[in-house]
Design the sequence.
């Protein structure tokens, strides 16, 4: 019996090669985290200098490692990549807000803004591969406490750049991002400007529902686009903190719903 045309979907775009490089990427990521923790970061932190300087040095080291990993994925053809407006990131007191469609976007964003602080999920402090780098870099644990909000606001008031993914987890494919109000509350308390970053990953990969070995049939394209700065004062002026953060959060919801469909 003849098989109807179009019922068999062939894998293309060098699928076998991309599968191999994806597996190698995960292995290198885990091994790299252990090497940083055991052999690199202890020397970086032990090098003379004030604590703040040593912390920035460690953060640059971690960021450089992420950049090298992103280059590996790009150079091997595992991922096609485009970053528009990266030169506008990394300003003092700037809070970078980004949606979170895949594990890949964290690597690319931190790799291209290496001196930025970042709010990361609390479970990474229990991950044997990542707890060394995130601790040495002084990243902020997203444990949901009021102290976390205060610490993040202090980081911004101190003149650091802060990256935050307000969803708290990866975006559900096909749905608009849903932001928790904590990011807006941090911005109102300490940010000079909020800069939205719009991330698209097509086809979807490494979402919460997709294991690493489910490699898409065609190459993944990551597009990171920096949007226009949002002045925090426009929301916080003449309004108490809770109302200002709610207004800012609603603005971010509408903005991302519109821009990610464009």
Sequence:
């Amino acid at each position: 019996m003849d098989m109807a045309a179009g019922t068999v979907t062939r894998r293309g775009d060098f699928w076998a090669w991309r599968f191999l490089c994806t597996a190698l990427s995960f292995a290198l990521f885990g091994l790299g985290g252990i090497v940083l923790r055991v052999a690199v970061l202890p020397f970086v932190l032990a090098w003379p200098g004030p604590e703040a300087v040593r912390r920035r040095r460690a953060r640059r080291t971690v960021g450089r490692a992420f950049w090298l990993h992103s280059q590996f994925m790009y150079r091997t053809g595992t991922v096609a990549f485009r970053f528009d407006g990266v030169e506008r990131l990394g300003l003092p007191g700037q809070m970078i807000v980004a949606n979170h469609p895949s594990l890949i976007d964290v690597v690319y964003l931190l790799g291209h803004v290496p001196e930025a602080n970042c709010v990361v999920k609390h479970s990474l402090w229990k991950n044997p591969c990542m707890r060394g780098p995130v601790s040495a870099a002084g990243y902020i644990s997203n444990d949901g406490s009021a102290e976390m909000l205060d610490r993040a606001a202090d980081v911004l008031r101190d003149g650091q750049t802060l990256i935050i993914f307000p969803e708290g987890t990866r975006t559900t494919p096909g749905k608009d991002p849903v932001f928790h109000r904590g990011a807006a509350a941090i911005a109102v308390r300490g940010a000079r400007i909020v800069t939205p970053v719009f991330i698209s990953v097509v086809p979807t990969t490494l979402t919460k529902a997709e294991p690493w070995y489910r490699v898409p049939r065609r190459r993944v394209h990551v597009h990171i686009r920096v949007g226009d700065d949002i002045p925090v004062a426009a929301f916080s002026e003449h309004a108490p903190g809770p109302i200002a953060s709610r207004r800012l959060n609603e603005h971010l919801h509408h903005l991302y719903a519109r821009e990610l469909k464009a």
Notes: Residues 197 and 226 are 5 Å apart (CA to CA).
